[in-house]
Write a sequence for this structure.
């Protein structure tokens, strides 16, 4: 049976996620992480999109992307295919690296985007890799709060987290506040290949558009 269409909107925000096949590690050395990040930067030049949040974990990754004309599937297919070829070549293996196709969550802007970014940046803490999310090497948190110059993230992230020291400090505090919160409700979003995170109005609009595309594809 063919897979259903993804939630596709122009200028949409997505949280994309994928893990290694059978939950196996996809990053075995620092070189692997750096290759993935390098490819992620290169694709920003090739396709029209913005990156607002990234965290690479040993056996999975999280990325927040705003698409424009290039569909999310095209961007992610280029990224995962390139990395899979590198990984198999480096470790002299064959077969898939990632578990199925990537999962994506269509995000409503503002507080919903910020809540998911909190979840992303706290992944290393919740996994017991670090106690301080700022110390995790393979996330974009330091860029997001102004402690490092923009390299991976887009400068227009200031629309979401602010550009003054005060607003950046408030966003940093927001991330740390999540350490004492229960974020398991967000885990449920990753049980489905497609999900929507936003107000009821936003979710209803997204699902109506999704069903129209699905019915058209299967007509």
């Amino acid at each position: 049976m063919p897979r259903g269409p993804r939630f596709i909107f122009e200028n949409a925000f997505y949280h994309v996620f994928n893990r290694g096949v059978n939950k196996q590690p996809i990053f075995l050395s620092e070189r692997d992480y750096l290759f993935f990040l390098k490819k992620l930067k290169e694709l920003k030049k090739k396709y029209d999109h913005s990156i607002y949040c990234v965290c690479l974990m040993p056996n999975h990754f999280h990325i927040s992307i705003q698409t424009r004309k290039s569909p999310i599937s095209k961007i992610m297919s280029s990224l995962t295919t390139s990395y899979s070829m590198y990984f198999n070549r480096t470790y002299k293996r064959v077969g898939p690296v990632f578990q199925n196709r990537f999962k994506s969550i269509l995000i409503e802007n503002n507080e919903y985007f910020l809540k998911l970014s909190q979840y992303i940046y706290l992944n290393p803490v919740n996994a017991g890799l670090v106690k301080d999310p700022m110390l995790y090497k393979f996330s974009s948190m330091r860029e997001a709060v102004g402690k490092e110059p923009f390299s991976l993230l887009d400068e227009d992230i200031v629309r979401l987290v602010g550009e003054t020291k005060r607003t950046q400090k408030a966003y940093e505090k927001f991330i740390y506040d999540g350490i004492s919160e229960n974020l398991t409700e967000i885990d449920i979003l990753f049980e489905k290949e497609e999900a929507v995170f936003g107000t009821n109005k936003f979710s209803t609009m997204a699902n109506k558009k999704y069903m129209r595309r699905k019915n058209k594809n299967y007509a």
The mean pLDDT is 82. The first strand starts at residue 13 and ends at 19. The domain at 13-201 is CATH 3.30.70.1290 (Alpha-Beta Plaits). The two ends are 14 Å apart (CA to CA).
